[in-house]
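Consider a concrete sample entry:
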Amino acid sequence: MNRCKTILAAAALAAAGLAPALYGTPAQAQQKAKVFLSMSYVGNDWQAEASNMVKAMAAHPSMAGKIDLQVQVAGPNAQKQIQQINAMVQAGAKAIVVYPISPTALNHVIKNACAKNVLVFAYDAEVTEPCAHNVTIDQEEAGRVTAQWLADKLGGKGNVVLVTGVPGTSVDTQRTAAAKEVFAKYPDIKIVGEAVGMWSQAVARTELSKLLATRNWDSIDGLWMQVGCYTANSMQIEAGRKPQDLLPCAGEGSNGGRVQMLPPGTQADGAAGTYAPMGAPRVSYASPPYSGALALKLAVQALEGKQVPRHVTLPLPLVTNETIKLCDTGSWAEMKAGCNVFEPSAVKNPGWFASIFSNETPEVGLNAALASQPEP
């Protein structure tokens, strides 16, 4: 009879999306839960930074004694990610935190994991399997708001170039579709070029160079780029444009792009060349790189038997030339007060993403994003 009660209790927890608590009995008190980070495409700054923040969360004193985090990278290959997740389940995973290459291709393997009481938390990009948890921004809002900003900036007319993200991901699909819906409302806005940017500054440069082989900057009026505004601004300066003549760009929250948004003459330590304040006309948004760290934190809470939301929608970090604010030191209190761009001397890589603050993840801050080091 007691065994039946135990099975029923476990089934109820599984139906609620929770695994039995790992820390509830003396025998289990010192047992670390095996948790995996499953990454797909990693060839850009955002993915590296998000991975750093997950690792930092796992290393925080509040987590280090509870979990053993292992990281696997599948690349942009859904079948390989499926195989790896299957292997994680077979290896005794209690939870899997995943950046999915597709919203649907992993559903079967995720459902199988859930059936074996393995918790699955996707971050940034979504999965549609109902048993999984998702931690994201509203990607459609990101595409819609930024496209509307650009349409307004252009007065509803002009030639625009689009540089998209990693094909097949929910992030890219939802952002791009929402942006195109906005532009379609304006008959005088023409999309004169579109390229796949893979959320990479280097790829954005390559693709823009290809587009510019058949047209010049003077034939373009605005840019909508999931990643690449920093690079586009730099290329224009390299081509001889003055900072005051830079094209309006709706795009990512890279630190380099945000430094360029600061008014000319702003004192920013280490600023030089194109990594310097120039008043570039911008709206800057980002999927926060801390989303993976939050997914891990929620997964551990669920493993401990706590109720956690099935879907967490994070606030959309949105910065304009009117709201850009330089962090002097990058302290937690300073970020909490609203600074949103870091000194070039503190962040050497202009492609690094600046939207790292969240009240939900005080365990990770600047050192986490840069070097996988948690807050004290």
Notes: Confidence is low (pLDDT under 50) at residues 1-21, 23-29. The domain at 2-19+30-137+290-314 is CATH 3.40.50.2300 (Rossmann fold).
